[in-house]
Design brief:
The protein is α/β, with parallel strands linked by helices.
Length: 515
């Protein structure tokens, strides 16, 4: 038996059935091209009979994305003549076409939904597989709700459709009902009881209603299935499908135990996830395995310490292997001293033990009141606790008046003290802060570049005191300036002037060292 698992992606068909996740034709083309880059073996591009849009999507993906070397492009078709013919018309002339036809086989579906006997369902299945085979050599048949189907009847149907020309037989856990050991036994039973099963690939299509889609798919391949139907980010009908990225990375990471492989270029998993999320509007949950924002993020001090010493202590796969640039050490209340020191090094600060302890204590205190501590917070801590130097105020703000509104262009009138002399100037800008900053820059003669401007509310409510942080750069010197006030324009001016004074101090220090 081959050790290659065929990855059948149904993001464009079943994935699109997620409420609110429908895609237009151009969006489907974009996703299909990403799936080709990813290396999927089969793309189920849509349900050609269901709408003109789906027909066009199948036709264009089949002809514009596929080529002689893959991927195969397939259209879903109910076991009805008009469906199969529509699928063929959409696929006609494509280099690697597949028709995927299906009918239910469980008693509950046949009795209540299809109003059909087992014999009628069997006959319909065989007829539509034969019709499909008259158009294409690659035909897949799905026994919908197979996991709730009488097994003897399931064996009978599979044997008959293989005899009629099906090259792949799909065993769906349509409502996510099976348990992993049960689903594995179903696959094992098919291999043992369907006489001509060696002439077809066994496929599985598992839904996630009980959160078991990936586990059931894994149990199936362990027991002999060689195609897994899945979707990017696990999107799909109701609770979704088996997640492609999880299936692929399980097989790659645990090849030692499973001995199975795929053709997926795993470095494209994260980009594919982001693209599908952006197009469908379905945000990936932060704790989603493989591609979630927190999948390679570490906050626990114990975990961070281990990771910094040896990545494999807490990462069983590298973020780079799925297309993420690097792991993230999230700085929060659970972070330890080792991680804090490393983050400081990344930011350019090499602190001695005494200074590190002082900064770390302040960091832990701040982390107790914030969910996450950002680099700007850490930089402010270092500036305040370790590097704080009383710099002389070469520039001082004396008065500030700003005019701004829907009918008036923003303008600022400033009175400042520059080297002990009072100065007054007026300036305009695109907004009130811009007007203030341009006026200050002209009055001080600075050549610095504003790298960052951020505003935070120190307290709650509309009367909150605002804290402004700016970062300036000039001639290789980078400084941080901060200012606070209930008027955010005043706070902005104070922060800018604070940074300019720090910059002047650094420039003066450099001159003194040179002399």
């Amino acid at each position: 038996m081959t050790d290659k698992i065929i990855i059948f992606d149904t993001t464009l068909r079943d994935g699109e059935q997620s409420p609110g996740a429908s895609m237009n034709v151009e969006e489907k083309i974009r996703v299909a091209k990403e799936l080709k880059k990813l290396g999927v073996d089969v793309i189920e591009a849509g349900f050609a009979f269901s709408s003109a849009g789906d027909f066009e999507a199948v036709r264009r993906v089949a002809h514009e994305v596929s080529d002689e070397k893959g991927p195969t492009v397939c259209s879903l078709a109910r076991a009805k003549e008009e469906d199969v013919k529509a699928a063929w018309e959409a696929l006609r002339g494509a280099p690697r076409p597949r028709i995927h036809t299906f009918i239910s086989t469980s008693e509950i579906h046949l009795k209540h939904q299809f109003k059909m006997t087992r014999a009628e369902a069997l006959r319909r299945a065989v007829e539509m597989v034969r019709l499909s085979r008259s158009f294409v050599s690659d035909v897949e048949f799905s026994a919908m709700d197979a996991s709730r189907t009488d097994l003897k009847y399931l064996y009978e149907v599979l044997e008959a459709v293989i005899e009629a020309g099906a090259t792949t037989v799909n065993i769906p856990d349509t409502v996510g009902y099976a348990l992993p050991h049960q689903f594995g036994e179903i696959i094992k039973g098919i291999k043992a009881n369907v006489k001509n099963i060696d002439k077809a690939v066994i496929s599985v299509h598992c839904h996630n209603d009980l959160g078991l889609a990936v586990a059931n798919s894994l149990s199936a391949v362990i027991n002999g299935a060689r195609q897994v139907e899945c979707t990017i980010n696990g999107i799909g009908e109701r609770a979704g499908n088996a997640s492609l990225e999880e299936i692929v990375m399980i097989l790659k990471t645990r090849k030692d135990a499973l001995g199975l492989k795929t053709s997926i270029v795993t470095e494209y998993l994260y980009p594919a996830s982001r693209l599908v999320s952006a197009i469908t509007g379905m945000v990936v949950q932060p704790n989603k395995a493989i591609v979630g924002d927190n999948a390679f993020a570490h906050e626990s001090g114990i975990h961070q310490d281990g990771l910094l010493k040896e990545k494999t202590t807490y990462e069983i796969m590298s973020p780079e292997s799925v297309g993420i640039s690097r792991s993230t050490l999230v700085m929060g209340k659970h972070s330890g001293r080792h991680a804090f020191r490393e983050r400081l090094k990344e930011m350019g600060y090499e602190l001695g033990d005494a200074d590190l302890n002082k900064a770390f204590e302040r960091f832990k205190s701040l982390a107790d009141s914030k969910k996450e501590v950002f680099d700007e917070d850490i930089e402010a801590i270092v500036q305040e606790e370790v590097l704080r130097i009383e710099v002389p105020d070469r520039f001082r703000l004396l008065k500030l008046d700003v005019v701004s509104g829907t009918e008036k262009p923003p303008a600022a009138v400033l009175e400042m003290e520059v080297d002990g002399k009072k100065m007054t100037d007026t300036g305009k800008g695109d907004g009130p802060v811009d007007a203030v900053y341009k006026t200050i820059a002209r009055m001080t003669g600075t050549r610095s570049k504003l790298l960052r401007y951020s505003v935070n509310a120190i307290t709650g409510g509309t009367d909150a005191q605002g804290e402004v942080t700016v970062r300036l750069e000039e001639a290789g010197h980078i400084v941080l300036g901060q200012g606070a006030h209930t008027d955010i324009i005043v706070a902005s001016a104070r922060a800018y002037i604070n940074a300019l004074n720090r910059l002047e101090h650094k420039k003066k220090e450099k001159k003194e060292r040179v002399v």
